[in-house]
């Protein structure tokens, strides 16, 4: 089979080109690129291909008159074929004298820069290069000798995309001997680059000395190295895909709180459960996401991997270079790019005086809200509003005003409720496993006597604790500043977004919480093959995202149970609209709910499953609204506890609308009171 037919078959098999494609052909004037140009030109004359070819040549200026004559040769050849030709004349010796860069690397960078610019200028989506199978063998052998990874063993890719231009190598499976035979048979002129015979270049020494010597051991050395490259490329592609899936499953991406750069966060236990090969590839993927791909050498990857796995070290920081740091805080691993001018942790102090309902905390993008709920009860008992992670209730008559909200200070102590005595705030943070990177960003609430009352999300003190005699209460709630619905202007359409009062939980916040829930369920249901039941309709989006985060075998089924209709409150009448398709007897059951408010629907469903002899029943709810509860019921796994407001989005609806919003927000009252 001649070279033209072999090349055409490979182009078809690999889908390298389509009919009518415009492509730049890089031509040095040597036999390989001359042959490639003539083969592509011959094929372009066929109606089924009809390609537009543009010849491109770079004169680096290294060899004076010799390289100038090569440029003239390429221009004449393009003219003979009736093809446009773009030539770049560079003065690389002068550039290198000024920069001190490596000659071969700098020349390659400038060459590809010109070739890609030419493609963009001509509107060409392809750039054809003349690398062949012997070039592939040289590349693989060079990388083996220098030390390489599976990706390095894959050698030169047959195709890759750079700056929206696809680089293709139609000759990559064709050997030099076949190309020279074609040149000779067709009496094609070409030029010889004298630098190709110089032994001062590593690649030339490999080609001229090392490979001929090794062929005395294996005459089929080039073929063997090409087989290795092909096998490595396939296996590399597979593990790369596995790494991308692992990245999507266990890595949370975001920005540093300071806004200095991007960050990646993951759970150490999830990382430790991956095979070693996948651990290394995941670290490489994280670093490539955060910074330049240059920071992917094995010693750096291995340092990071081992630091992440090290036992008995709850806190660790590692500088990976290029501004990237790895920080480990208990089982929380964080990679982040820091700006050299990253600001210091915020220091703040604000005074709250009675009568003010809101105290802005701009450093934390939050505000502290104050209200005075009523305490109702009889002698010996008191009913107070429920405390949550971000709210605390105090006896107002036992507080000393004004209150202060400030950042932490060295030597801070508080008396945690339930503990007989005081404790250093630093020790509380350690016991509660509060990451070091967030400790300076937690507000501390004190009274006029300097007593620490509350650290939102961590601990409250025993100061001014509510009891049966309490009359005047003060409730404090830390409220993160809402994300405007307008930030989702491309989703849901303006007719939906204009109905949202404020966004409670962004899409990113929801997904981060779902990852946590998935990791917990994976640990607790190892080896149990639970039946996961989605309560339709609202939970279907939550269910779809949650099961992707569960790493143990599960089965799925669906059940539709309703007590709403088109109302905003539960009707109290529960009915099964769609029943399960599989029996539950003797099975571990996980019920997936979008939201629990009155608890009537869920209580009814649990009763049904218990009567069907389920082995165990657990409830995972993304949202919980305990203020609406009319039955005694608590979810086993909870995402968020939400205020008593009508919320929609992410599966939650009002009159079958708003389910498709990617966030959860509060619906404007005028929408459901019309």
Please describe what this structure looks like:
It catalyses: cytidine(34) in tRNA(Ile2) + L-lysine + ATP = lysidine(34) in tRNA(Ile2) + AMP + diphosphate + H(+). GO terms for molecular function: glycosyltransferase activity. InterPro entries: Hxn_phspho_trans (IPR005904), Lysidine-tRNA-synth_C (IPR012796), PRTase-like (IPR029057), PRTase_dom (IPR000836), Rossmann-like_a/b/a_fold (IPR014729), TilS/TtcA_N (IPR011063), tRNA_Ile_lys_synt (IPR012094), tRNA_Ile_lys_synt_N (IPR012795). Keywords: ATP-binding, Cytoplasm, Glycosyltransferase, Ligase, Magnesium, Metal-binding, Nucleotide-binding, Transferase, tRNA processing. The chain has 674 residues and is an alpha/beta fold. It is 34% helix and 23% strand. It contains 20 helices and 31 strands. Strands 3-2-1-4-6-5 form a six-stranded mixed beta sheet, with helices on both faces. A six-stranded mixed beta sheet has the order 26-25-24-27-28-29, with helices on both faces. A five-stranded antiparallel beta sheet has the order 7-8-11-10-9. Helix 10 (221-250) crosses helix 12 and helix 12 crosses helix 13 (298-309). Residues 377-383, 486-494 and 564-571 have low confidence and may be disordered.
Features:
674 residues; alpha/beta; six-stranded mixed beta sheet; 20 helices; 31 strands; 34% helix; elongated; tRNA(Ile)-lysidine synthase
């Amino acid at each position: 089979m001649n070279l033209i037919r072999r090349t055409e078959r490979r182009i078809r098999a690999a889908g390298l080109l389509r009919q009518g494609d415009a492509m730049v052909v890089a031509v040095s004037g040597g036999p390989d690129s001359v042959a490639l140009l003539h083969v592509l030109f011959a094929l372009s004359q066929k109606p089924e291909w009809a390609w537009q070819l543009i010849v491109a040549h770079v004169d680096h200026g290294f060899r004076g008159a010799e390289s100038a004559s090569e440029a003239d040769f390429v221009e004449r050849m393009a003219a003979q074929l009736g093809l446009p030709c773009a030539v770049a004349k560079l003065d690389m010796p002068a550039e290198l004298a000024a920069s001190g860069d490596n000659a071969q690397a700098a020349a390659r960078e400038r060459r590809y820069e010109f070739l890609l610019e030419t493609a963009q200028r001509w509107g060409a989506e392809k750039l054809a290069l003349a690398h062949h199978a012997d070039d592939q063998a040289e590349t693989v052998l060079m990388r083996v000798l220098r030390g390489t990874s599976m990706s390095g063993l894959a050698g030169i890719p047959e195709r890759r995309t750079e700056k929206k231009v696809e680089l293709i190598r139609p000759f990559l499976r064709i050997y030099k001997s076949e190309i020279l035979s074609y040149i000779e048979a067709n009496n094609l002129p070409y030029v010889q680059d004298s630098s190709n015979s110089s032994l001062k270049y590593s690649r030339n020494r490999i080609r001229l000395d090392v490979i001929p010597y090794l062929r005395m051991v294996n005459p089929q050395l080039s073929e063997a190295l090409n087989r290795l490259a092909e096998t490595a490329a396939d296996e590399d592609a597979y593990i790369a895909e596995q790494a991308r899936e692992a990245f999507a499953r266990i890595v949370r991406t975001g920005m540093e709180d300071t806004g200095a750069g991007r960050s990646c966060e993951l759970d150490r236990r999830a990382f430790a459960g991956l095979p070693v090969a996948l651990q290394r590839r995941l670290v490489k993927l994280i670093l490539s996401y955060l910074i330049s791909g240059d920071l992917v050498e094995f010693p750096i990857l291995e340092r990071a991997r081992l630091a992440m796995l090290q036992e008995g070290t709850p806190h660790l920081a590692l500088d990976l270079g290029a501004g990237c740091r790895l920080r480990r805080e208990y089982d929380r691993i964080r990679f982040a790019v820091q700006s050299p001018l990253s600001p210091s942790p915020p220091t703040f102090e604000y005074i709250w005086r009675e009568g003010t309902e809101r105290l802005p905390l701009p450093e934390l993008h939050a505000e502290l809200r104050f209200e005075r709920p009523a305490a109702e009860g009889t002698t010996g008992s008191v009913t107070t509003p429920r405390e949550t992670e971000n709210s605390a209730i105090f006896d107002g008559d036992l507080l000393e005003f004004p209150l202060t909200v400030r950042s932490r200070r060295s030597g801070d102590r508080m008396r945690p409720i339930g503990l007989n005595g005081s404790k250093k705030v630093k020790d509380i943070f350690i016991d509660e496993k509060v990451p070091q990177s967030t400790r300076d960003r937690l507000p501390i609430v004190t009274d006029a006597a300097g007593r620490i009352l509350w650290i939102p999300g961590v601990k409250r003190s025993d100061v001014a604790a509510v009891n049966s005699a309490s009359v005047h209460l003060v409730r404090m709630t830390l409220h993160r500043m809402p994300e405007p619905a307008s930030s989702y202007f491309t989703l849901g359409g303006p007719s939906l977004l204009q109905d949202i009062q404020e966004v409670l939980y962004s899409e990113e916040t929801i997904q981060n919480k779902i990852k946590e829930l998935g990791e917990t369920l994976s640990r607790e249901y190892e080896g149990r093959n639970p039946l996961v039941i989605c309560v339709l309709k609202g939970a279907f989006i939550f269910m779809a995202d949650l099961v992707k985060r569960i790493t143990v075998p599960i089965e799925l089924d669906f059940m539709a149970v309703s007590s709403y209709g088109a109302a905003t409150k539960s009707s109290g009448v529960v009915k099964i609209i769609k029943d399960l398709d599989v029996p539950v007897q003797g099975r571990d059951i996980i019920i997936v709910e979008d939201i629990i408010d009155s608890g009537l629907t869920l209580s009814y469903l649990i009763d049904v499953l218990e009567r069907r002899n389920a082995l165990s029943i657990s409830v995972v709810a993304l949202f919980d609204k305990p203020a609406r509860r009319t039955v005694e019921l608590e979810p086993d796994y909870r995402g968020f506890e939400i205020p008593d407001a009508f919320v929609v989005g992410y599966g939650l609806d009002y009159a079958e609308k708003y389910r498709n919003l990617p966030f959860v927000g509060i619906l404007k009252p005028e929408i459901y009171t019309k």
